[in-house]
Automatic annotation (TrEMBL), chain A:
Domain Ribosomal eL28/Mak16 intervals: 8-127
UniProt KW keywords: Ribonucleoprotein, Ribosomal protein
Phylogenetic lineage: Eukaryota, Viridiplantae, Streptophyta, Embryophyta, Tracheophyta
Family annotation (InterPro entries): Ribosomal_eL28, Ribosomal_eL28/Mak16
Gene3D superfamilies: 3.30.390.110
GO cellular component: ribonucleoprotein complex; ribosome
Source superkingdom: Eukaryota
GO biological process, any: translation
Family: Belongs to the eukaryotic ribosomal protein eL28 family.
GO MF annotation terms: structural constituent of ribosome
Protein known as: Ribosomal eL28/Mak16 domain-containing protein
TrEMBL record, chain B:
PROSITE patterns, A to Z: RIBOSOMAL_L1E (PS00939)
Superkingdom of source: Eukaryota
Protein's name in the database: Large ribosomal subunit protein uL4 C-terminal domain-containing protein
Pfam families: Ribos_L4_asso_C, Ribosomal_L4
GO BP term, example: translation
SUPFAM superfamilies (UniProt xref): Ribosomal protein L4 (SSF52166)
Length: 143, 464
């Protein structure tokens, strides 16, 4: 599959797509979020987009207090079912953080996402801790 | 540009019903060039907008509505507005306004006509371009995901299924097929989304809405597949040679999830042609070319050819310094005009000199009586009185004996309290004042140019 380049996809997708969420105001006053699963900050922008980039990183909560770290494989762009390298982590936070930063930047996968990945990891991890009490927030990123 | 060997292969998903005879090679089909065509969302939006008007049925208001009266205006002079009023009598309707859009029961403004231009014509090449773009977009997982289809479990895009699917007869079997190829979540999504429409449409025979599921494209006429798949909510079917843009890009949005059968997939090449080869079915049609063959900007920018000619990055950003006012800031002034320092110095010195000279001149003219004044202040009232008396007396004495100037040694009767030195001082002061006043008197006369003053005094006979 001659890959359609990320920039092209972004130009098509940036105006409207099913994951786009506009909040707080109308027109230029609104903030644009994105619900797609491969987006670390959930921000609608080219750098963070899970649709327009060949290499993406995603960190989601898994079952029972585990965190799932997944990266997309560059060679399998058009095979959605086998696209992700998933790894389920159930270690203590520091180990997980080391693992994440290894995968994301130390092997030059997407070093510009390092901060985002670690931030997301800590938030997801914290949300898992509180999972017992209070109402469960629906994970809008599903996947 | 596209030899069959250079084109990537798409594996055909096999179903249970397939005979497990095929080897790996027979199970893959080269990607047709249509899927490589330029993706043009602008053309698709335009063409989709135009084409979707073509299925409309005309609506209009009745021709005669509002005019089925013989109403006439009553004219002026009757204390009513001049609107045409219904003639006759004996009923409510009589005398009511008629014919106007503002009247009750009158005709509307600009009654809708059936000869409104309902349909739109679109150039054939444009229509074909749009379809081709939509097909190409359906092969890009990002775009299909962006449109909202659930394709996380789909093994490959574009999704090609073996021809056994065309023979499926029962809907239950069709559902099983969908499950095997990972298309079930999308169909499920469509089924779950069935809801009553919001708005008046629900009362106008458009009661239900739901999402769109996969589009199944088959190649053989009369395949049983049509009847099997058509009842599954969300799933639509199409024959390869009759692909509809309204189905390929619903709502004008690219990226419908399409399931091809192998036969249909292979037919695509002959229907749309390749970039070099003319299409067989569409007379003289060649696939549209993109403006950029290689649209991957990131790769182009980072390529050797570009990087070797590009100037290095400017790491240091030069910031403009804050402008300081030379009239207030000495150093900045000196940077502009080095002579300013010398000039200023000269000016200061000259000023100091001027001040000093003036002060000296004044001092000379005014001799301060500091000793006497301070002494005077220390004395008691009683003594002050005597000193004062004595002072005035000495003044008078001195003035009286002007002709013969001060003779030291003359005495005035004075009380014992005043010491000798004080007396001398007082006498000195008095004489100094006297001489100063005399010289002032002289300058007054000379200044006034009154030369005959001497004569004047003689006339008066005053002997001073």
């Amino acid at each position: 599959m001659a890959t359609v380049p990320g920039q092209l996809i972004w130009e098509i997708v940036k105006k409207n797509n099913s994951f786009l969420v506009k909040e707080f105001g109308n027109g230029t006053a609104s903030v644009k979020f994105s619900k797609e699963p491969n987006n670390l900050y959930n921000i609608h922008s080219f750098k963070h987009s899970g649709l327009a980039n060949k290499k993406t990183v995603t960190i989601q909560p898994g079952k029972d207090q585990t965190v799932v770290l997944a990266t997309t494989k560059t060679k399998k762009q058009n095979k959605p079912s086998t696209l992700l390298n998933k790894s389920v982590m159930k270690k203590e936070f520091h180990r997980m953080a080391k693992a994440v930063s290894n995968q994301v930047c130390d092997n030059y996968y997407r070093p510009d996402l390092k901060k985002a990945a670690l931030a997301r990891l800590s938030v997801v991890h914290r949300s898992l801790k509180v999972a017992k009490s209070g109402s469960k927030k629906r994970n809008r990123q599903s996947s | 540009m596209s030899a069959a060997a250079a084109r990537p292969l798409v594996t055909v998903q096999s179903l249970e019903s397939d005979m497990a005879t095929d080897g790996a090679a027979a199970n893959s089909v080269p990607l047709p060039d249509v899927m490589r065509a330029a993706i043009r969302p602008d053309i698709v939006t335009f063409v989709h907008g135009q084409i979707s008007k073509n299925a409309r049925q005309p609506y209009a208001v009745s021709n005669r509505a509002g005019h089925q009266t013989s109403a006439e205006s009553w004219g002026t002079g009757r204390a009513v507005s001049r609107i045409p009023r219904v003639a006759g009598g004996g009923t409510h309707r009589a005398g009511q306004g008629a014919f106007g859009n503002m009247c009750r029961g009158g005709r509307m403004f600009a009654p809708t006509k059936i000869w409104r231009r309902w349909h739109r014509q679109v150039n054939v090449t444009q229509k074909r371009h749009a379809v081709v773009s939509a097909i190409a977009a359906s092969a890009v997982p990002s775009l299909v995901l962006a449109r909202g289809h659930k394709i996380e479990e789909v093994p490959e895009l574009p999704l090609v299924v073996s021809d056994a699917a065309e023979a499926v007869e029962k809907t239950s079997a069709a559902l099983k097929v969908l499950k095997q190829i990972g298309a079930h979540p999308d169909a499920e999504k469509a089924k779950d989304s069935q809801a009553i429409r919001a708005g008046k449409g629900k009362a106008r025979n458009r009661r239900y809405v739901s999402r769109k599921g996969p589009l199944v494209v088959y190649g053989n006429e009369g395949a049983k597949l049509v009847k099997a798949f058509r009842n599954i909510p969300g799933v639509e079917i199409a024959h390869v040679s009759r692909l509809n843009l309204l189905k390929l890009a619903p709502g004008g949005h690219l990226g419908r999830f399409v399931i091809w059968t192998k036969y249909a997939f292979e037919k695509l090449d002959s229907i749309y042609g390749t970039f070099d080869k003319v299409s067989e079915k569409k007379n003289g049609y060649v696939l549209p070319r993109a403006k950029m063959i290689n649209a991957d900007l990131a790769r182009i920018i980072n390529s050797d050819e570009v990087q070797s000619v590009v100037k290095p990055i400017k790491k240091e950003v030069k910031k403009a310094p804050l402008k300081k006012n030379p009239l207030k800031n000495l150093n900045v002034m000196l940077k502009l005009n080095p002579y300013a320092k010398a000039a200023k110095r000269m000016a200061l010195l000259a000023e100091a000199q001027r001040v000093k000279a003036k002060q000296d001149k004044l001092d000379k003219k005014r001799k301060p009586i500091t000793k006497i004044i301070t002494y005077f202040c220390c004395l008691s009232m009683h003594l002050r009185f005597w000193v004062y008396l004595y002072f005035i007396g000495s003044l008078l004495l001195v003035s009286q004996s002007r002709a013969s100037l001060m003779q030291p040694g003359w005495k005035l009767p004075c009380p014992v309290y005043l010491s000798h030195s004080v007396i001398c001082l007082l006498q000195e002061e008095a004489s100094a004042i006297n001489s100063a006043s005399k010289s002032w008197y002289k300058t007054m006369i000379s200044d006034s140019d009154y030369t005959e003053f001497e004569n004047f005094t003689k006339w008066l006979g005053a002997s001073q």
